[in-house]
Amino acid sequence: MKKRVLALVMSTAMIASVLTACGGSSNDSSNNNAPATDTNTSNASTDNNSAPADSSAPANDANVDYGTGEITIWVAENVQTFTENQIKAFQEANPQYAGYTVTVQPVGEGDAANNMITDVEGGADIYGFPQDQLARLVSSGAIMPIPDTYATWVAEQNDAGAASAAVAGGVTYAFPITSDNGYFMYYDKSVITDPTSLDAIIADCEAAGKGFYMEINSGWYQPAFFFGAGCTLTYEADDAGNFTSCDISYASDKGVAALKAIVNLHKSSAFVNGSAVSNATNCAAIIDGTWDADAAKALFGDNYACAKLPKFTADGTDYQLGGFGGFKLLGIKPQTDANKMQVCLAMAQFLSNEETQLARYQAVSWGPSNKAAQQSSDVQADEALSALAEQLAETIPQGQYPNEYWQLATSLGDSVISGEYDNASDEDLMAVLTEFQTTCKSYAGQ
Fold it and tell me: What share of the chain is helix, strand, coil (3-state, %, to 5)?
């Protein structure tokens, strides 16, 4: 642990040195702060990430000799060759970085995070990881905060959800590369007349004798109602992965409204508990993700359509369904050599910029987080990604959750499906949510 802390301290000192050399300042945080991100996402503040007046991408000095060395990059196997080709092109275009030998290894995002936390010194210099691992990486000293000019670039270039996912404790630690893990609605446009209203969707499905699919006994999909109503459920963990606190507000009037809406959905003859298009039959609408786009196209044919999640109504109030969002990020291991650190920063920025994200989409269909790339004709023509991009603005990045939470959420949904709450009063539902909330807090020793 001492080695990790020392490496992080040295890295921070090196960052200050590099910023000074580039003409920036790490001491003045009163002006030129990065723009605030969407208030529907968590930990979006970048107040400490001040930037000079010119907030364009950080300049890389072609006249500086950055020396030689070795850099290891971990990425998912299906983008290994793509990344190798991109790095080769990057070094050819930037000869000041050509003295570094770069090895790109296939390590999945989840494995990469676990490996880095286990052995920081032996880990990759640049690595891809899912946003829910950021807190663990930070607390274990396996990732360095990026300099202010890069942090501002991240905030300006990427959508609010992705930019927020790269931030922990008000500090930006990573470069977003995708905004493509979440859920939205596939539907049959010959049946669904108003995809913005859950009540209207259910009425259309009932009238047509078709199914509306949503997996309400899943801790991944179920929060769409609770978060949409304004409830919170997040955890904090220490560097050993132990959960230390839980911020939850399910036991509230908003929570009751959300649970009541879930119960009412279950009561519909159109409701089917599920989230896989491949298992759906006689379906008019389904809440699912981009991974099932091809199956949805095959199911709905010429009537294939996509939309962000609809609004639901409880006690006369409309709420926009929310939920979790998922993003892939690039992190950099704390470096003790200023030159190598700058090379890593430049490479990570290149691998996450507009052009590379768009090329990655074209190569392997990963949805860009870069706002300009999202507006490209190719991405805009992808109906699933467009719907997801709209929905991600309504979500929070998924953080770490105890295994027991997922089981508890399944149990709550199973009780709804079994009809246990069909005739429950508001007081009964509040009691259910109070027990749920108390149990969630117990996982963090509260």
Answer: 45, 20, 35
Q: How many domains does the chain have?
A: 2
Encode burial over 100-111: b for 16+ CB neighbours within 10 A, e otherwise: bebebeebbbee
Q: Is the dihedral of CA 14, 17, 22, 26 positive or negative?
A: positive
Same domain flag for 383 and 433: no
| Residue 175 and residue 104 share a domain | yes
Strand partners, 102: 71
Question: Do residues 204 and 331 share a domain?
Answer: no
Q: Extract the tokens encoding 34.
A: 């990065």
Strand partners, 128: 330
d(CA 135, CA 46): 16
Q: Residue 382: inside a domain, yes or no?
A: yes
Rg of the chain in Å (alpha carbons): 23
Residue 397 lies in a domain: no
How do beta strands 324-332 and 396-397 pair? parallel
Largest CA distance in the chain: 74
| pTM exceeds 0.85 for this model | no
Same domain, residue pair 276 and 360: no
Q: Is residue 401 scored above 90 in pLDDT? A: yes
**Where is pLDDT greater, at 140 or 208?**
208
Residues 302-340: pLDDT tens digits?
999 999 999 999 999 999 999 999 999 999 999 999 999
Residue 249, Cβ density class (10 Å: 0-12 exposed, 13-18 middle, ≥19 buried): middle
Structural contact between residues 163 and 311, judged by C-beta atoms closer than 8 angstroms:
no
Q: How far is CA 367 from CA 162, 269, 359, in A?
A: 11, 35, 11
pLDDT in tens, 217-239: 999 999 999 999 999 999 988 76
Has residue 146 been placed in a domain?
A: yes
Average per-residue pLDDT for the chain: 87
**Position 87 in a domain:** yes
- Torsion angles phi and psi, residue 243, rounded to 5: -80, 125
